[in-house]
Inverse folding.
């Protein structure tokens, strides 16, 4: 490893501080101790010891004492490199006269999704030959698809096939689940659905995370994100289940981006509506699909009983994720959107509009 330009030749190079074990631990205690995207900070003793050795090698006892007197050990900790999502996000330009929200009822997810995209302007508006597309489902829990806690694998497979049909070079399916990733992707059916549709499955590991800079955000202004699959992506599609949520009332398309965060993200539960609005500000997708084929009406987000699930046989396809969530909260969950704070917060951040009736929108049955 060559020294930085401002470091003289012969300058000693320290070994990096301890890092979390390779892979993504399935043991819950280990996952809590080493969350994806977070390097384990060295102990104060480790930091001070290494700082002292560094100073001694660099020029004597006086420099060593100065470093050893650094109470936080900050001079021995390398600051993470910041990355950014591409300017403007992954959205395509709006088309005058074209709906921004389409509600499709039916029993064949592929036909439903195709109909929705056709009304939004057609697949060719969103995906071009050679595009690399990230397809982000919700695979947060180790649950069977019938329980409604995760994206319907049939809907995901339909989306992946349509994206490939449009000429996508690669469709990348990924999430950072709360439970064991391997178990969640397997039991939810998402793993097999993605592979059968010709998509690439990417499981979270520490090497996939980078510290993302989100200018204008408060909670996630600098935060570890499942970033590497987005670094060269051309399009991003969110495909989220509609479900009840005990903290934020409902988990929909905007809340789906929570699965991209690394680190100790559970601290955001105290400001859940703020974080959901910041996620919508962080990620400007190409389009979103709200999966309401079967809906977890209560006891979300994990569910566990078929008695909590209601079949609605509906997909909401939209270029405005705030409008999609507002429509679904009111018309499908039958709740008052004026009482869901993150809708107003996201609108205030310019992520979309909660006044979905003011948009051009369509509702069809196929």
């Amino acid at each position: 490893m060559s020294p930085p330009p401002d470091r003289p030749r012969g300058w000693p190079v320290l070994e990096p501080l301890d890092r979390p074990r390779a892979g993504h631990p399935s043991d819950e205690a280990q996952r809590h101790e080493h969350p994806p995207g977070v390097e384990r900070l060295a102990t104060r003793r480790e930091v001070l010891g290494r700082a002292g050795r560094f100073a001694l090698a660099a020029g004597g006892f006086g420099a060593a004492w100065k470093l050893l007197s650094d109470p936080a050990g900050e001079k021995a900790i390398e600051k993470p490199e910041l990355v950014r999502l591409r300017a403007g996000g992954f959205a395509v330009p709006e088309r005058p006269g074209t709906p921004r929200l389409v509600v499709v009822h039916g029993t064949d997810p592929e036909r439903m999704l195709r109909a929705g995209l056709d009304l939004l302007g057609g697949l060719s508006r969103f995906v071009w030959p050679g595009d690399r597309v990230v397809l982000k489902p919700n695979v947060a829990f180790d649950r069977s698809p019938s329980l409604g806690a995760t994206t319907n694998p049939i809907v995901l497979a339909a989306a992946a096939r349509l994206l490939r049909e449009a000429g996508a070079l690669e469709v990348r399916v990924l999430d950072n689940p709360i439970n064991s990733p391997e178990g969640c992707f397997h039991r939810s059916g998402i793993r097999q659905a993605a592979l059968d549709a010709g998509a690439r499955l990417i499981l979270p590991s520490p090497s996939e995370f980078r510290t993302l800079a989100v200018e204008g955000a408060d909670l996630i202004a600098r935060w570890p994100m499942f970033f590497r699959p987005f670094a060269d992506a051309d399009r991003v599609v969110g495909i989220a289940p509609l479900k009840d949520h005990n903290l934020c009332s409902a988990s929909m398309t905007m809340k789906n981006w929570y699965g991209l965060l690394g680190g100790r993200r559970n601290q955001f539960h105290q400001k859940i509506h703020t974080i959901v609005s910041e996620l919508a500000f962080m990620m400007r997708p190409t389009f979103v699909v709200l999966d309401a084929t079967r809906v977890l009406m209560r006891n979300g987000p994990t569910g566990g009983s078929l008695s909590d699930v209601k079949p609605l046989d509906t997909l909401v396809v939209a270029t405005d994720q705030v409008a999609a969530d507002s429509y679904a909260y009111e018309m499908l969950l039958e709740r008052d959107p004026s009482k869901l704070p993150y809708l107003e917060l996201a609108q205030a951040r310019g992520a979309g509009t909660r006044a979905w009736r003011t948009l051009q929108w369509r509702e069809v049955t196929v």
About this structure: The longest helix spans residues 44-59. DSSP finds eleven helices and twelve strands in the chain. The chain has a mean pLDDT of 86.
